């Protein structure tokens, strides 16, 4: 019998890509999302990202549940209704600028919501959690690239936790277009640079990064060109 994975924030960008991989690896997947960072079109049961995931994998998400992690009774019902083996936690607000302007909302959602999720997991005996954090927890680091043992929380510069010039140039090169831009000061809370050393992932998981920045930019532009209004684009 395959394990059941609960993915919080599973309709978002990172979450939906992980749901796709879980389905391809024959796990049963339950998704909880409040659609703050995703889209469900009128008349559809699933968010559009999960519809595309099901199409690509030819497998079904076991259940999508619209709800908020700050609601303890909602969480308890999810764990009561389903035997969950693992929780993968992506649900979080994520805008650096907004987090500086609205810190209380970010603490309430990202910290309080996670605590309530952990309490429900404890109540129902679910002991396996994968937490998707942010590189901003490393603040403005003294050494790069970051590794798993790099200190966190010491120099955080924003409640959510480099300039974009290199990415702009890569995007222009990959897609043959010019992007108008203006160099200004970093947003409040932004740090100079954050990037990770993936050596441990190679050693433990036999995973290595194979896509280039240009490939990423080309893929992103292809999707945006085909969906100028996002998932609301009429086909």
Automatic annotation (TrEMBL):
<dbReference type="GO" id="GO:0003978">
    <property type="term" value="F:UDP-glucose 4-epimerase activity"/>
</dbReference>
<dbReference type="GO" id="GO:0005829">
    <property type="term" value="C:cytosol"/>
</dbReference>
<dbReference type="GO" id="GO:0006012">
    <property type="term" value="P:galactose metabolic process"/>
</dbReference>
<dbReference type="InterPro" id="IPR001509">
    <property type="entry name" value="Epimerase_deHydtase"/>
</dbReference>
<dbReference type="InterPro" id="IPR036291">
    <property type="entry name" value="NAD(P)-bd_dom_sf"/>
</dbReference>
<keyword id="KW-0299">Galactose metabolism</keyword>
<protein>
    <recommendedName>
        <fullName>UDP-glucose 4-epimerase</fullName>
        <ecNumber>5.1.3.2</ecNumber>
    </recommendedName>
</protein>
<dbReference type="Pfam" id="PF01370">
    <property type="entry name" value="Epimerase"/>
</dbReference>
<keyword id="KW-0119">Carbohydrate metabolism</keyword>
<feature type="domain" description="NAD-dependent epimerase/dehydratase">
    <location>
        <begin position="5"/>
        <end position="175"/>
    </location>
</feature>
<keyword id="KW-0520">NAD</keyword>
<keyword id="KW-0413">Isomerase</keyword>
<comment type="pathway">
    <text>Carbohydrate metabolism; galactose metabolism.</text>
</comment>
């Amino acid at each position: 019998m395959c394990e059941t994975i609960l993915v919080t924030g599973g309709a978002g960008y990172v979450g939906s890509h992980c749901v796709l991989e879980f389905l391809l690896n024959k796990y049963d997947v339950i998704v909880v999302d409040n659609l703050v960072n995703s889209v469900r079109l009128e008349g559809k049961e699933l968010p559009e990202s999960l519809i595309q995931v099901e199409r690509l994998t030819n497998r079904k998400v076991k259940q999508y549940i619209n709800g908020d992690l700050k609601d303890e009774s909602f969480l308890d019902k999810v764990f009561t209704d389903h035997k969950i083996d693992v929780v993968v936690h992506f649900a979080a607000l994520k805008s650096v600028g907004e987090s500086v302007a609205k810190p209380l909302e970010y603490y309430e959602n990202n910290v309080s919501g996670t605590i309530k999720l952990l309490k429900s997991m404890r109540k129902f005996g679910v002991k396996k959690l994968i937490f998707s954090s942010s590189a901003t927890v490393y603040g403005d680091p003294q050494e790069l690239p970051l590794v798993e043992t790099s200190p966190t929380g010491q120099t955080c510069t924003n409640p959510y936790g480099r300039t974009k010039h290199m990415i702009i140039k890569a995007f222009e090169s990959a897609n043959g277009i010019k992007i108008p831009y203006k160099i200004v000061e970093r947003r409040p809370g932004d740090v100079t640079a954050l990037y990770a050393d993936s050596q441990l992932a190679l050693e433990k998981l036999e995973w290595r990064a194979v896509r280039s920045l240009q490939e990423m930019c080309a893929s992103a532009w292809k999707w945006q060109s085909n969906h100028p209004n996002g998932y609301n684009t009429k086909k």
